[in-house]
Every structure is written in structure tokens, then in C-alpha cells.
Amino acid sequence: MRNIVFARIDDRLIHGQVMTAWVHETKGNEIVIVDNEVAQDEFLKMIMASSVPAGIKVSVLTEDGGIEYLTQQADDNKIIVLAKNPHVIENLIDGGVVIEALNVGGMGARKDRSKLYRNISVSDSERQCFKTLADKGVRVFVQVIPEENSADIKQYL
């Protein structure tokens, strides 16, 4: 099993200072983006790879590819897993990937979403998915940047 040091939900996946802060905080040296659409888009994959600090390996995988990769025998890499929504994380876990904690970062407002916490919005199915993950023993918490205090998502569901 690969060494996952951090898993995060963020609509924007990799972006600027926030990602740099989490890479520094977790000492991660590999980022695995799990997103079926981005995995099929060569331009977006190039943008994602060019958006990370030097020396960080980036892989963009489909959900099936993520399960296959993340359940392989561990190497020395410290992996940060990024996804746009909690359903992806649930699918990874159901596929055998061990994720003990999930950071909820940026989830922006949309027509199908309502406010959960500050600037984080979720749909009804995403809200239920967070409950399911918590019931499976995953520590789901809101923390945009490492310097902020974390908040257990259960109190907002």
C-alpha cells in the first residue's frame, strides 16, 4: 500500500499558495490527482504538472487508475491525494485504498450546493458521502490552510 500522507477535496485541485503550504506541512513529494475528466485532458494534465513546486512528482489518474496505483506496494514517496469531490475518495476507499483522514478544502458554490461551512458548499449527495466516510472511520475535517485550526465536519452535517 502506498504511503498517503494527505488526502484533500478541492474543486481547483492544485493551486498556488494553498498547495505549496500543504506540501510543506505534510512533507509530501508526490501528488496524485484522481479525476476521470482531468485524466483525459492532456492540456489540463500539463497545467497541473506545471503548478507544483520543483521536485514534486505529479500523476493524474482516473478513479480506476487511482485504485490500481494507490494499492500497489509502497515506495518511499509521501503521497498527497487530490480529488474534486468526496465520492471519488469513497470510491478509492471502497477499492481498497487506505485513507484515514480527509481534508475538505475548496468546494465552491453551485446551483446544486448549499453552504456547509464558511466558503465551503456541498450538494445533498456530497453531504451524505461525508457522513458515509465518517461512518467508515475516516476523520473528515475542514481546514483550508495548515495555519488554521481544523474543524471536524460532523458538527456541520
Automatic annotation (TrEMBL):
<feature type="domain" description="PTS EIIB type-4">
    <location>
        <begin position="1"/>
        <end position="157"/>
    </location>
</feature>
<keyword id="KW-0813">Transport</keyword>
<keyword id="KW-0418">Kinase</keyword>
<keyword id="KW-0598">Phosphotransferase system</keyword>
<keyword id="KW-0963">Cytoplasm</keyword>
<keyword id="KW-0808">Transferase</keyword>
<dbReference type="InterPro" id="IPR036667">
    <property type="entry name" value="PTS_IIB_sorbose-sp_sf"/>
</dbReference>
<dbReference type="InterPro" id="IPR004720">
    <property type="entry name" value="PTS_IIB_sorbose-sp"/>
</dbReference>
<protein>
    <submittedName>
        <fullName>PTS system, mannose-specific IIB component</fullName>
    </submittedName>
</protein>
<keyword id="KW-0762">Sugar transport</keyword>
<dbReference type="Pfam" id="PF03830">
    <property type="entry name" value="PTSIIB_sorb"/>
</dbReference>
